Amino acid sequence: xxxxxxVINKNDIFVELERKLDICFKDKELLKVALTHSSYANGxxxxxxxxxxxxxxxxxxxxxxxxYLFLNYSKKTEGELTKRRALIVxxxxxxxxxxxxxxxxxxxxxxxxxxxxxxxRVSILADCVEAIIAAIYIDAGFQKAKEFVLIxxxxxxxxxxxxxxxxxxxxxxxxxxxxxxxxxxxYDLIKYEGPPHRRxxxxxxxxxxxxxxxxxxxxxKESEQSAAKKALKGLEKDNx
Length: 240
Prior knowledge:
It is built from twelve helices and three strands. The protein is mostly helical.
């Protein structure tokens, strides 16, 4: 049920997240399991973690998106629908959804996992989104889970249909910039900070010596992708 349809205990540790999700779980234990990473359960007895829910949530997400695309885009071929669905349910798309919910701070994980950047790790956040979808499915049924998916993935679906979801921003930037001939695209590591297990990198991307974007990440690759993404957004704004 929706948050405004039920009474929430203000002492409930999940109240903040339930408000973000606009969901009120009848069985709070399901949400707790969905938010529990396997590292948290290591060495502890009777602690359930979210891997099995991820498995189920992936299927619920796939069928919800598949049905929506099938019913609403009758002129698209099977191949086109498959491509769009893959963009919508991919790890990066799930990660973007998780960031909107600020999901990282709600996940239960070991101290070691947290110290190595677990609360911002793409795979952990994406898996947790799937686990939450499964928890809603078990708690409230398929129809409610499907409604939840379609509401929260609306922007992602729209971008996928318009082919505006980019999985590799560096490649996309190169394609855009080379439409007018060869250009020199340079990624420069400006600085890094933090301890070795939690190092943050700052990268700057320039085209023909003109700086187009700056990005950050917890690996050089991630910071370069971030810089390319910022550059693309800037170009889109300039041309828009």
